[in-house]
Design a protein that fits this description.
2 copies of one chain form a homodimer.
Chain A: H1 12-22, E1 26-28, E2 35-37, H2 39-58, E3 62-63, E4 69-71, H3 72-75, H4 79-85, E5 91-94, E6 97-99, E7 106-108, E8 113-120, H5 125-135, E9 144-153, E10 167-177, H6 180-200, E11 206-210, E12 222-229, E13 235-245, H7 247-251, E14 255-257, E15 264-266, E16 268-275, H8 277-286, E17 303-307, H9 311-331, E18 336-338, H10 346-355, E19 360-364, H11 366-371, E20 373-378, E21 383-388, H12 392-417, E22 419-421, H13 425-434, E23 438-442, H14 447-457, E24 460-465, E25 473-474, E26 481-482, E27 485-489
Parallel strand pairs in A: 3-9, 17-18, 17-19, 22-23
Antiparallel strand pairs in A: 1-2, 4-8, 5-8, 6-7, 9-10, 10-16, 11-12, 11-24, 12-13, 13-16, 14-15, 19-20, 20-21, 23-27, 24-27, 25-26
Helix pairs in contact in A: 2-6
Chain lengths: 492, 492
């Protein structure tokens, strides 16, 4: 267990909060609900951004940037959208400060009041569709496939670092299409991009599915999500992709002249996003009581090298060997850091990099030099091996692949062990209470039943997985007929 | 001249405004003073970001992220800082909207008033130094070398796309040091990084120098800037690096235990930034009456290939050859796009890519195929050559280097022709009136003289170039003694 880190068994929630701080990922700022993302945490975000950005571009999207501010009137144009976001909006009302004439210091200048208040974007559908209106006249202007990397603000009352913050960083894709089919294909394509990213890069197995009506994005006709399981048996919604139908096109009067009949039709829309919340999911899914466990593909550096030495001469000899080794590792695109600080002992460094989740640690001392070996430790399994320095880069490359796969398999196994099929409400409650995880159960499809289950058990329908076979059954609560099981869980 | 583009001679300012729109770089949004950066404009920003980010990391900096909001009280802590920014602050006062009970639609909920107003960051010194206070105890915690990529808001009354907008994108470096010397070295290092970026990537020659006291950043002891010359003879401040002394450390009480005497000392600070304004400078410095001229190192794509064909069969043959060619170009890291759209004629495409400033155009038709040649046109000189397809990738690589250098040399020549040494105020006014550009003149070092010159001629001291030799002289206006010339110009 890392110095003073609460164990998961003791208090999972506290373990998470402490780990985010101790591993130097982020901290709470002086502004309520807003976080400071520290360099080590931000480096993970940069890795995520790089991979996702490439995936978006490979699927035909370009980046653009739209204003931070949304005029209040835009907000009101799509009824369910404003209903969904109105309660958590940061509102700009003035544009100037001044010195108080009565010596009370700096005050907001009452004369600098905006004619129309501006909302800090909680999401950008409205400002973007107001812009698309001018860009779209004919089918030739479609599709529009844009993404934006941005900060957004939702005035959440209860916040937690990465998982739920008033300001967060994210990307939001906003696409416009000539046909419903094309928009639905886009919606599905992007939720699949997210699932691929989660599984291949975050080593996080996810369930793809559609949200129930009451859990849909405000303004969407269908919301797809990816849902992952954390180590405390709670689910985390890790990304969403929305089929918006013609709702925003109608709200902002965006029509195009179609190819066939040259008549004016409303444009079809999608939007999709993932955020810095993913970092919270990454931490909670894989880390242990010693600290972070980072999948090699997203680790700020994959290998840390620690010299074991007495005196400057020994260090110089080791460093020479290490420089060679680093060059070889970098040549095959492995990121590596050498910690030759004299101010800390090796034991301290070992604990520090375990805490920070560096996938592989290489320790090298004078005896290693003599033998042409190094000690290689893997973070995921906390095991060590003595490895020949000759050809060590290939060993490490292979090891990093193994670690990536092992972390995924562990998470998958955990999920399998914590996915339960139940047929009675008693069993449902018992599982949620004692075992946690995903519960697959029949549901009659009504809001009322969903609401009652939520109130009584705190579990919600995470999504309706598309891959599940149709299966006739009866709702566990009402006994009404059901066409298939849905995925329940308590969630973040 | 591009379709409907005003010429520079006719109206430079209008030429710029039209070009930004016609080349699909950006447009005004529905929110006063805020722009929409369109994909082609954003792609230039992404190129800039990638290069700068690498340069920052190579000079030892890491990225982090701090809140968008700054509590009003933080702002007041550094007196000259608040004075500099108070008049252009967007202020958040409420955190909720609601349905008006009298049916007036969505209104700001008066009950959701913040106890303390939040300012949208116009720059982040205050929120960052409030954070650094907790990070810094001892000399071991120094230096801190951070950068942030972010949006900021300054409520400007007169805005222009890229050059001056209420919201803009930028990076802001914020560093903390144990000694004054170290902080000054950092300040200079970063203005040099900006100068290198401007000259090597933007092909934009710049003058590095210090600002006069009245033009310094609000809160700085010294501000370094890079100043570039636009084609209308006006200067553009393209980047600044500030030595902040201990001002922010004192305002936020940030002290460290020093190594030598273990006594508490205030920390030394720098900050430095460049913004999307650079895109405005890039456009204004190089482009012509046919449209953009982009330096190859920052062009979203460097080569456009246009097929000249009749019928699908010819196109198929050409496309086959083009695919080969593109592979070879991409193999040596040249970005290339193939425009095989049937909906537009070659002539239209030629004009379009000239407007968009693509550095090299390759046109290829059936006769070219027979001869094994292609027509290669360069955007900067608007000249064409017939080139053998065999080995064309090396020709293009070389050509792109030549174009990059040529654009820089042109800008340099323009600057040399528009830099005038003057010794009398009459001449000074005459040059500003009729020739424009930079004027090197003696100044007595007082605010009063600077102010008078500004009021009478609209010219300001752009900076005091460090490379200029000391030279005894007399102020052209007051006749008082001067130790050297400074750089005057009208500016954006």
């Amino acid at each position: 267990m890392a110095k003073g880190l609460t164990s998961r068994a003791e208090n999972y929630s506290q373990w998470y909060n402490e780990l985010v701080i101790k591993a130097d990922l982020a901290e709470n700022s002086a502004v309520r609900g807003c976080m400071v993302i520290k360099p080590y945490g931000y480096a993970i975000w940069e890795k995520m951004q790089a991979v996702l950005d490439k995936m978006f571009k490979e699927t035909g999207h370009e980046n653009a940037y739209f204003p931070l501010f949304i005029p209040k009137s835009f907000f009101s144009k799509e009824a369910s959208h404003v209903e969904g976001f109105a309660k958590e909006c940061a509102v700009v009302t003035h544009y100037r400060l001044k010195n108080d004439e009565n010596g009370k210091g700096i005050i907001v200048d009452p004369e600098a009041k905006l004619e129309e208040e501006l909302i800090i974007r909680p999401t950008s559908e409205t400002i973007i569709w107001n812009t698309y209106k001018n860009w779209i006249q004919s089918y030739r202007d479609l599709p529009i496939l844009l993404n934006q990397w941005a900060n957004v603000v939702r005035w959440e009352m209860r916040t937690r670092l990465f998982l739920r913050t008033a300001e967060f960083l994210w990307q939001e894709g906003h696409t416009a299409h000539a046909t419903q089919t094309e928009a639905i294909i886009e919606t599905k394509k992007m939720v699949n991009v997210y699932a691929t990213f989660a599984e291949k890069y975050m080593a996080l197995p996810v369930h793809i599915g559609t949200k129930s009506e009451s859990e849909r994005f405000a303004g969407a006709l269908e919301t797809y999500s990816i849902e992952a399981l954390m180590q405390d048996g709670k689910a985390l919604q890790a990304g969403t992709s929305h089929f918006l139908g013609q709702n925003f096109a109608k709200a902002f009067d965006v029509k195009f002249a179609s190819k066939e009949e040259n008549k004016l039709e409303y444009v079809w829309a999608t939007s999709w996003g993932v955020s810095t919340r993913l970092i919270g999911g990454l931490i909670m899914a894989h880390s242990d009581d010693k600290g972070l466990v980072l999948p090699p593909k997203l680790a700020p550096y994959q290998v840390i090298i620690v010299p074991i030495y007495k005196g400057e001469q020994e260090l110089a000899k080791i460093s020479e060997k290490v420089e060679e080794m680093m060059q070889k590792l970098r040549n095959i695109d492995i990121s590596v850091k050498y910690d030759n600080r004299d101010s800390q002992k090796p034991g301290w460094k070992f604990a520090e990099y375990e805490l920070k989740g560096v996938p592989v640690r290489i320790a090298i001392g004078p005896r290693d030099l003599e033998n042409g070996t190094a000690e290689v430790a893997r973070r995921d399994e906390l095991t060590k091996e003595i490895v020949n320095i000759e050809g060590i880069e290939n060993y490490i490359k292979n090891l990093l692949d193994q670690i990536q796969e092992n972390i995924f398999q562990k998470a998958l196994k955990y999920r399998e062990q914590h996915t339960t099929k139940v047929d009675s409400y008693e069993e449902f409650k018992e599982i949620l209470e004692n075992k946690g995880g995903f519960v697959l159960a029949h549901w009659d499809g009504t809001k009322e039943t969903e609401e009652r289950i939520k109130n009584e058990t705190k579990a919600t329908i995470r999504n309706i997985p598309e891959y599940l076979p149709l299966e006739d059954g009866v709702d566990m609560l009402t006994g009404k007929p059901s066409k298939g099981r849905v995925l329940f869980a308590k969630s973040y």
